[in-house]
Amino acid sequence: MQSHIRNFSIIAHIDHGKSTLADRFIRTCNGLTEREMADQVLDSMDLERERGITIKSQAVTLDYTAANGETYTLNFIDTPGHVDFSYEVSRSLFACEGALLVVDASQGVEAQSVANTYTAIEQDLEVLPVLNKIDLPAADPDRVAQQIEDVIGIEATDRLLVSAKSGEGVDDVLEAIIRRVPPPAGDPDAPLQALIIDSWFDNYLGVVSLVRIRNGRLAKGDRMKVMSTGRAYDVDDVGVFTPKKKSRPALEVGEVGYVVAGIKNIDGAPVGDTLTHAYAPCSERVPGFKQIQPRVFAGLFTVDSDDYEDFRDALAKLRLNDSSLNYEPETSAALGFGFRIGFLGMLHMEIVQERLEREYGLDLITTAPTVVYQVLTHAGEELSISNPQQLPPTGEIDEIREPIIKASILMPQEFVGPVMQLCMEKRGVQKNMAYMGNSVQMDFEMPLSEVVLDFFDRLKSVSRGFASFEYDFARFQAADLVRLDVLINGDAVDALAHIVHREQAYDRGKALVEKLKNIVPRQMFDVAIQATIGTRIIARSTVKAMRKNVTAKCYGGDVSRKRKLLEKQKEGKKRMKQLGSVEIPQEAFLAVLSTDDKD
Ligand SMILES: Nc1nc2c(ncn2[C@@H]2O[C@H](COP(=O)(O)OP(=O)(O)OP(=O)(O)O)[C@@H](O)[C@H]2O)c(=O)[nH]1
């Protein structure tokens, strides 16, 4: 019954206890027996479990018998907390009427929660502040509630206090959801209008889509139509996750559940699209949420060129489950055949690389990530460059524009100085600063390329982990940018080229050459490493030739150490790439990332 449905999401910063609270809800509503309750059912992928982060949003449908004796259907949609995946948060919120803002009562509000709460408020959701981990001695719910009011600006007087770990206060949260989150609107008799919240590929079923029914109903056996493509499919199955998959005859208005319709390709059911009936369609799509653009690109190559075909197959399979993944073939003189892959951010890149290696057994070399540049040529052409190799000769370039982000950093007062200094160093322009209690929010505009470098790590280190960071793409803006090339024994290594600001080129070039000098192993001959801009050499250093048989001397008597060393070498070999006569380890290709590390 529509009046007894509550759709809600949980907004929380990483580690503030969202998954633990979700598990509690499932336990309380008896969605699963204790034994079936694997440690953390919601984080289903192995990789997620290991990293302790939630990558994909998932929905769970629970029956809850409230204190008033009536039974309600609770649909809650889990969301990831990391900035790379904030688009998944906004699309999860799209399907809800309410959101729990879960804040660790011993930590306080973080930038990501602020941003996501604003998204929820913009979408007219009822936001319920929940203070978690009240069992911890360091918990200070009053201070954190005050902070929620100061920093986010929402009323926190009727905050909920819980310990997801012990279960204390969890019932109160469920009751508050029933009382304060409105039931879904929508007309059960109108033509079907359903929003696709997520789609993924299942080896047996094909594409499975998670949908929210806005109007009408969707039943097994219906003929449905995907509105953007106009293609029609027979609905094989609909149902909900409890969190076990449970088939139902139909999904009714206001409900959230899955649809299987024999769609073989993930592009056949794009996230954000609208489903309707083929014979009695609705007139318009559910107004969509923002389409996401990959912002970070890197070249990935197999260590062994024989693995190229496997690599291509693996990427195709991975994309079935990750429609945000973009790739196209790339050829590098240094690394051979590979792919240029577009990612949502650095974390996304790491996860994709790790899945390719772990699930598909590939050995990969990744080049330093780069952002997309707009290049205006004298001929009046506007090019989109996601690979430094594609940059036209300097003489042809009128203007290079780089992506600028709006960044918002939240931190305790004492870190304002070092954080500001870091942002300046990263070519940031301060836009705003607001004091809220003991917290300070600073808004900066900054080139995305600087964030791609090592901004997260540096921010963490200068603020001892207390600063949190959130960003949004703002615009492209012209800047004085040049390509920095690296030559090894006179040969340009295309995979090491990158685009930098002219003012930083000299320092970066010098630091990079020094770093490479320590990474490139000694050979039987001198290896010259040079950094150049155009034809001008800006830095150089030399890896001296090896004297004969150094290892034999060092490890003469100790057999076990020698064996270890050999094993290590074998391990290292896997990640080496032969460049002309010089072997270069994987590390070298990422050296570009951290050349300005001064901490
Ligand atoms: N003491 C205490 N620890 C808690 C409580 N709730 C969660 N934790 C712990 O906090 C850590 C993070 O909890 P998760 O539920 O995984 O956090 P999350 O917000 O889901 O994290 P992501 O999935 O990465 O976004 C875990 O080690 C939990 O055991 C609580 O109420 N009290």
Automatic annotation (TrEMBL):
GO biological process, one term: positive regulation of translation
Record's keyword terms, sorted: Cell membrane, GTP-binding, Hydrolase, Membrane, Nucleotide-binding, Protein biosynthesis
Domain named Tr-type G: residues: 3-185
Pfam families, A to Z: EFG_C, GTP_EFTU, GTP_EFTU_D2, LepA_C
UniProt-annotated location(s): Cell membrane
Domain of life per record: Bacteria
SMART domains: EFG_C
Record EC number: 3.6.5.n1
Gene Ontology MF terms in the entry: GTP binding; GTPase activity; guanosine tetraphosphate binding; ribosome binding; translation elongation factor activity
Major place of residence: membrane
InterPro entries in the cross-refs: EF-4, EFG_III/V, EFG_V-like, EFTu-like_2, G_TR_CS, LepA_C_sf, LepA_CTD, LepA_IV
Membrane topology listed for this record: Peripheral membrane protein
Top-level class of the enzyme under EC nomenclature: hydrolase
Binding site for GTP: 15-20, 132-135
Record-stated family: Belongs to the TRAFAC class translation factor GTPase superfamily. Classic translation factor GTPase family. LepA subfamily.
Protein name, entry field: Elongation factor 4
UniProt organism field: Salinisphaera hydrothermalis (strain C41B8)
